[in-house]
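As noted in the main text, all predictions were made from sequence alone. Below is one such record, for ABC transporter permease.
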Amino acid sequence: MIEKLYSDFDAPITIRSSQTKTFFENEINFQQLRSTTGVKQYTKATEEIVVIKHEDKWANATLFGVDSTFLMMSRMSAHMVDGFPALYENQEPVGIIGASLLDKLGGYIPQAFGRESVMIYGPKRDMKMSVGKNPFQTRIVPIVGRMNFNREVNAESMVVPIELSRELLGYAENELSAIYLDVTDPSKKHAIKTTIQEQLGNQFTVKTNDEKNELIFQTSKTERLIVIVILVFIFILASFNLVASLTMLFVEKKEDIHILKSMGADGQLIFRIFFYEGLLIAAKGIIFGLILGYGICFLQLQFGLLEMPNSFGEVFPIMLTVKDGLLILFLVSSLSFLASYFPVKMLLKRNAIV
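Prediction:
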């Protein structure tokens, strides 16, 4: 889910200038870039913070100026809530806006007639501020679609043709903020990144989407470990119930224990009776717990009972694996063994049975 949310919109590899905010196309050898092994395609892009207005509502947004290859690279068609993915309609530039951003502006995508439109205010570059001067370039842009990637993109982003963004931002015809690269094999993107970095030198910074969203990916990787640690603590707390059950059983069966001893039963036999009783109690919990847990996961997979908040119908993702079931079985069985063995041993020693 994390890769789907953060890796589709963010290109596998991004090239930026390490010294300035923008750079010019003639600083990059696109022929060499295109022929690099593993590079599938590239997109020239501009990025800038702008102000967007719709009727009487205003919002800040990140304006992404891209060419048509970006729509394929980002799998835009799979992330549309309303409308359709396009940068031009009837040869006129149009935009795709984040779903939450359009909601914030009070707009919508009319399907039957017309187009929703927003006013974009792009800051003029190298302008001295003075009374009476307008510090913005403005343009009314029709909106043809709402995109749903992740919370950040949905709330802050708008995609338009790169020619329109250059006009709004006052960029030169060949000026760029970044170059987005798509790769043929995502598993080799770090090796491709290293190759490109060597080609471009220190004047440019080359990053993978993992590095760009490093905190998110590190968090998602450690989340599994955190959940397992929490589960272990829950299992430890639950094991006290098992200890209490065995203690109460021992108290109730004291007279029966003396009868067994008088019939010739030794301490090891009595130990095994209570020890196996503890394992049976735990086994019942493990079996019913796994059935219930996998049953809930199966219902979520089939019917999508739980939806993520502010996700426009996205359900909580579930993935069933045998490995997880075996891990839970091992952890609970180990704790059950310890919670049965040591308490029974101590009870029998205290009562001079073993």
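The first strand starts at residue 13 and ends at 17. The mean pLDDT is 89. These features were considered when defining construct boundaries for the mutagenesis experiments described in Section 2.9.
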